[in-house]
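Work Package 3 (structural annotation) set out to generate three-dimensional models for the target panel prioritized at the project kickoff. During this period the team completed the workflow that converts sequence records into discrete structure tokens, so that structures can be stored uniformly alongside our sequence database. As a representative example, we reproduce one entry of 194 residues exactly as it appears in the project archive.
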Amino acid sequence: MGNTRRFCIVTLLAVLAFGTAAKAEDSPFWSRSGEWEIRVDPSLNHGCFAVATYEVDTMLRIGLDPGEGDGYVVIGDPDWQSLEEGKSYPIRVQFGRAAPWEADATAGRMDGFPVLFFRFRDLNVVREFMRKREVAFIYRNRTIAVLSLSGSFRAFQEVIRCQEQVNAGLIDSGTDPFSGGLGRRFGYGDDPFR
């Protein structure tokens, strides 16, 4: 494996969770940080995530799954129509000039959009995401995407803050509009009976 590092992948869980992952616009909105939207995905144990869409229509999403105690990355592009849903693709992920990570990404679709999904347990992935200026995705020695991570440090600080609030029960993560608390941040009204 040389100087490459390996993502800790839970393939079966990735496929199961991926099959139910909510698309960004269906996930409750938390905040915006630069080009990144921070949202909560009820289908992934109310995990918070950051998502950005680039000029070339490539989408990058990185988030937390508190139920599994790990994180995940989703990258998609409308041109990737040949991806076979459920098939595993070996991907290298390189943050800046750091040594690349290797991941077995599962192909799927989010609202018809072809994507690759993989999980990680190593928090260094998040650190590199926050600190580097760009990330490259490589398949069979061919770079398939190079994306700017401008603003990713602040964006993931918001993801962490969002997750802390959800975990502490201080906000309603979208399942009960009558639970009160700070759920109105997601567009729910005040609870007059609380």
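DSSP finds three helices and eleven strands in the chain.
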